[in-house]
Each structure stands twice: as structure tokens, then as C-alpha cells.
Design brief:
Number of helices: 14
Strand content: under 5%
Structural class: mainly alpha
Shape: globular
Amino acid sequence: MNEFWITYWAVVAFVFGAIVGSFLNVCVWRLPRGESLVYPPSHCPACGHQLQIWPDMIPLISQLAYRSRCRYCGERFSWRYFWVELATGVAFSALTLRFGSNLWDLFPALIWIAALTVVVFVDLEHYIIPDVLPLIAVGAGVVREMGPVVFGGGSLQRPIPGTGWTAPVPLSLWGAIVCFIAMWALAALSSAAWGREAMGSGDSLLAAALGAFLWPIRLVVVALIIAVALGTVAGLTQAALAKRASATGGQEIERHAAAEDPLPPLPAASRVGRLLTVMGVGLALLAGWVLLPESDLQGIGGGPWVWSTVLVVAVCAIGMGAYRWWEGDRHWAPMADAAFEASPDLGPRYVPFGPYLVMGGLVAALFGDRLIQWYLAASGLAATGLVPGAILATP
């Protein structure tokens, strides 16, 4: 494809993305409020006047032409509408340039990033991630892998590392499961250690969405590294700005920054339950792996009876931990929800992690393999022979 057609399709993708972004704005506003995405039609929240596609809802242009105001009553609209449309257009254009004419990669990628765009703006505004959005992204990742197999022939049998077995499970599902468990375990351990809710279930589902689309694991690692780096910078910047505003007389920010955390601490039962559950899951995975035929971990010692006992203990730990977790959260969750709703501004205390996971995932999808190759070459690891060929290989 020559340069003209590449540019042409990139522009088409941008325009299409901006149009899709207009619908995503509806999702960002209505999903957290439990409203229908279809009815009533788009309208001004101030005067209630129904907005027309022409000239009120032309993506990007209407916002600029009317200076983000309702042309009927003059009420100001949030500039978030403009940024959602712009971000979706840019993301669609970039993914089109990345995947080109490979439609089994491109179409799922567009659905994936559309769902995650809504995640970004909902999480920034409401500090929640509706479960349906990461699940849609997981589905897009599975379709990306299964589509060519189902309609183009082939097998879904995949080798299970270290066992000699195969299973008819797409790698995208393996990626979703592994990333979900890893993020869930991290959140549970962090909450148990700090006595505060560290991350919600939405972040674990969001990690699953990255794992489903970005598998193999090397791209997921790139996404997580970028997300942690961006989140750390944002958190430090936010803390520094709050401290500076407090020092210069910013009374409102000072009041919020100095206020205690509005969420009640986790009960001891919940903390112990989280710890037991994570430990039980880890032991169960280890014991199950050792007991598999042809396992590479047989050399760590202990016969089948020993590891069968470990597996039983692990299952008991999971059961006890899950019960303690549930028992603690059963009383804590209503108080936390009430405190969360009553707090007008969580900005100085909380940094939503979802947007940074999404940004890391998008960068990994676009440039992940190039970043890996650059790092290996710059660090000299590529020439040492210590890096597995699966990491060196670039699709």
C-alpha cells in the first residue's frame, strides 16, 4: 500500500473514531448513572432541549463552534466531550496504521480501545470501572485470536508449558486469567498490608482485558511497566501540587489534603481473609503444577502424597480465607459506599489506576515489540544469548 492510501485510511479511521467517540461520550455520562444508552435522546442537561445531530452534535466541530456551550440556553458543557472524541479518533487512526489491512487484528482492536476509552474517563470522574467495559475488551481479545482459526481453519489446541499436554483454550483466555489473578492477588495483598482498599475489582478485570489482547506476556509486561511509571509520576505530581497549594494558601486543597481518609479501615477479618485466600491460591497453583505429569518442578522435593496434602491445605485456606474476607466486607462495604458517596472530592487522596493501565496497554499494542527490541539492544542483553528466542522474535 502506497503512502497516499496509508494516509487516506488513517484519516478515515480518525473521522470514524471521532464519530464513535460521540457515542462513547453517552456511555461515559450514562453508564455510571445506570441510565439507558438509547433513551432519552441526547439533550442538554440544563434546559432539557433535545440536541440535533446537525448542527449540535458534529464530532469535534460543534464543541469548537459553540465554545462548548448549549446553543439553546448557553449553559456550558464539559470539554470532556471534545477530548473523548479526539482521543478516540487518534487511537483509531494509530491502530489502523499499526494493523493495516489485517481485519482480524484491526476490528477487535477498535472495539478493545473503544471500551477502554470509556474506562479512562469514567474512572477519572467517578473512581469506578463498570464491569461490562473490561469484559467487552476481553471478548475483543478472544475474537482477535479465534476469528482466523474458526473462519480460516486451524486448531485451538495450545501447549501447556512444562506438561506435554495441550488444551483447546485460546492464549487470549490464558492471558486474561493470568493477568486477572496477578492483579487480584496484588490488590488483596496490598489491602491486607495497608488496611485500606487498594484497588477495586475493576482494575483486576482491566488487567484481564490487557492480557486477553496483548498476549504474549512480554507485551503485558511492557504495558504494566508503563502504567506503573505513569501512575507513579501522576501520584507524585498530585501530591506535590496539593502540598504547594497548601503552602501558598490554597485553603480548599489544604482542607482536603489534611482530612482523614473518608473510607473506613478494613476489618481485621477481611485483611486476614485476603491474605489466606491469596496464599491458598498460590499454594494450590504450585501443588497442582508439581503434580502434573512431566512437570519441570518435580525436583523441588516431596512425593505425590506430600504435594497432595499441600493441595488439600491450600483448598482449605482458600475456603477459610474467602469466608473471612466475605464476612469482613459484608459489614464494611455499606459503610465504605456511604463514605465514598459523601466525599465530594477524592482527588488529593486517590489516583485512579485504570487510565494508566489503558495508556500502557495502548502503547504496548502500538510499539511494544519495538520498545522491547530497543531495550535489549541498548542494554546489550540481545547479544548475551540469555534472552529467550520468544522474546527476541518480533511478529
